[in-house]
Amino acid sequence: MPKSKRNKQVTLSKTTKKGRGHKELIINGIRDAAEKYSSIYVFNFQNMRNSKLKEFREQLQSSSKFFLGSNKVMQVAIGRSSSDEIKPNLHKVSKLLRGDAGMIFTNLSKEEVERLFNEFEGYDFARTGSIATEKVELKEGPLEQFTHDMEPFLRRQGMPVRLNKGVVELVSDFVVCEEGKPLSPEASRILRLMGNMMATFRLNLVCRWGSEDDFELYIDGPGDSDVE
């Protein structure tokens, strides 16, 4: 018996994979920036927040250009060895593009770049799996920061609560999270309700390149000794 065509699934949305053309655009953009700007920095980041990074990029857009994405693509763009680097000693920069990293090409002075990166911090609510930076414990008694209609939701998060004359009440002490331990989905939701921002988004400078003889390491980490 022939298969019915009535139940055939049809995909209405189409997605285009980022292929070779997209990679070439990034490579060409990086190489153009290497000609336009006087210095290059590698940075790494913690607790990435796109909105915070966007604010920082907009602050520097008149003097600098940021690149984040595939480390391998960025390495290809500037050269992975002394034989294929686009400028002398850029292979040293390439070797430091590891993990959560990016590059900034800029005409700002070294002192100004260091000041901007050192001063930049963004705070946000920690996500599930993030490491708690402190112990948060709620004591038995009224929880006046929560409205009465939130009581069912709080119970679903594992909190021992009840309504007492329209007031949410904790019937026993409750530990939301322990310092140094990963946050559960429930802990993450409770901290958000409490307005407790545990995630700090930072950008840390790793190295600076200014010319063939102007290369500086900011972070001495595992594997940095092989930057030759």
UniProtKB/TrEMBL annotation:
GO cellular component, one term: cytoplasm
Cross-referenced InterPro entries: Mrt4, Ribosomal_uL10, Ribosomal_uL10-like_insert, Ribosomal_uL10-like_insert_sf, Ribosomal_uL10-like_sf, Ribosome_Assembly_uL10
GO biological process: ribosomal large subunit assembly
Compartments where found: Cytoplasm; Nucleus, Nucleolus
Primary location class: cytoplasm
PANTHER family: MRNA TURNOVER PROTEIN 4 HOMOLOG, MRNA TURNOVER PROTEIN 4 MRTO4
Family the entry assigns: Belongs to the universal ribosomal protein uL10 family.
Subunit structure as annotated in this protein's UniProt entry: Associates with the pre-60S ribosomal particle.
Name by which UniProt lists this protein: Ribosome assembly factor mrt4
Organism: Medicago truncatula
Source lineage: Eukaryota, Viridiplantae, Streptophyta, Embryophyta, Tracheophyta
